[in-house]
Amino acid sequence: MRIASGLSKRRLLFSPLSSSARDSAEDERQRRLAVFGFEFARHVLLSRFVQFIEHPVGQARRLEEFTSFNDFFTREIDLATRPIPPDHRVCIAPNDGRILGHPVVDANTTFGIKRHTFNLSRFLRDDTLAKQYVGGSMVISRFYLQDYHYFHFPDSGTPGPALPIQGKHYALGPYWGRTPVPWFSENYRMLTLFDSDHFGQIAMVEIGAFTVGSIQQRFNPGVRVAKGARKGFFELGGSTAVLLFQRGAIRLDEDLCARTEENIETFVRFGESIGKA
Question: Known catalytic residue: 96?
């Protein structure tokens, strides 16, 4: 309906109003041509875009079913194609993304996210909370535009509310920064403290990026969730999700840590292992 409304306003620029039946018929013909042109352009643009990307495993919708780029970016997948490991000792990746795994993050350890460098206190903006994760592990997962943009719970348990950490939306520049940045140039993010059944309290943080106008949460705080349950999704664009584990709660998979030591990201799909209890 918004498309029709937008086209009607645009049509006034080249279709003069008239009360005659002939002009009304011409108006209707122009409107239909405009609708056809818009739909054709949308299809061509989406077709060109998806030619250069790899579709997520489990994507079920056909190209012509998408109504906009945002609809394409926020598409769901068939979760039956992403089996969850039954072993409760396995912590799963909460999303499709390119992962860096830090086995130990100390109070003064700096890490890079979206061109910026942080330590735990700067990242969480809560010194008391940051102390709970000193000596623990961190997983940073970057989304690309073509990725499945939902994020899920990495274990069963009970989530608290999603709380905003105010900031701005900045583009995905070089992944690693060299120096800390002032508070006003940090990205907007949301924090959920998740009391997991097998990995203690996990801090789940979703971080907005350029063109990501909102982080949508789709869970009920205080209500138990199953391992792999959907938590929410990002709208339009790429972004980042972070998991913080307390000391001794998890042993991250060795291949992730080894590549991280070389500043190499590892692509991991939702449902695959990132570590064990």
Answer: yes
